[in-house]
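FIELD: query
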Amino acid sequence: MYGEFEKSNIRNTLEYLRIKEILLLGLFMSSISVAMECDESIIERDSSLERFNLGEDPEHYNKRMVSLENSCVLLTALRKLYPLNPQNGTQINYKLEWDVGFPNASANYFVSLKEYRITVNGGILALKDFSLGALASTVCHEIGHILGGTKDTRRSEKGGKALNLSEGLADYFASQHCLKKIIRLDSFLFESLPKIERIKQICNKDKACIKILNAGYDHYYSGSKGIANLNLESTFVAIKLSLGFNSHPEFDCRFDSFINGYFCPEKLDVPCGILKHHKKFNVDRPPKCFYP
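FIELD: result
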């Protein structure tokens, strides 16, 4: 009888392990499908190339550093991570305007559509040294204009939903929240070797830190046209608020804010160093160049 009981236990244990293996495999495949899916409704094409400043260059698409498919996959993943603004339940839509040559990304609220929209122009992918990490950092920054910031940095226009107009707090949101979520998707293999000495010193051997700061570096360096030295801390000192259109701080200042954002705990509603003191993370204030 004991032998039969023991055999029954073995069978039950094996069955349990088999079921557990199937469930774990299902979870793994689910995470991969979230990461690898490209929802083509995100892509907008237009054959009227001239009005999008693509000019006469027949190689304008070949110069793009990130492919159409990878761009779509990334935006699809970010839409699943941030489908709406939980503060008011309003949907966030994501669009990749592939044929727009002007290098830009933006966040807006469309009153007529009753939705937020993150828009990425295909031309941004042709910037020097632009990478998949740079695209992730850029889009996370734009999401920060919708979900990030504080009560004092939010403004609404023409009856629309409020947007966070602080560029510094949008950079904070990108590294404090958004990029920490996106690098957990295994298919997005951001570079894990430090791009510059400063990243190596700050992160030591922390791979998540290296990947995220590399993404920020590519984002800011590609936009700076090689002028900013992101190996050094910013020496610029902000003397006024920056809450208006086209009021981005200097690129080295933005990278400083991005670094501080990474070392903030992910679940804080208010970025540390803005309103609170956090001894544990040694970020009792934002960089001196920070625009609140």
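FIELD: remark
The longest strand covers residues 90-97.
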